[in-house]
Amino acid sequence: MDTSSEYSFPIFISSTDYNLKDFRAELARFLSELGYRPILSSAEGFPDNSPKLEPWESCIPVLDKAFVVILVIDGKYGYPLNWPNCGDLFKDKKISPTHGEYFYAHKNFKRMLVFIRSEVMTYYQSYRRALKKCNNKIDEAEKILSHTLPEYIDFKTLQFIHEVKTTKPIPWIKEFEDITTVKKKFRRKC
Question: Are 157 and 77 in contact (CB under 8 A)?
Answer without folding.
Answer: yes
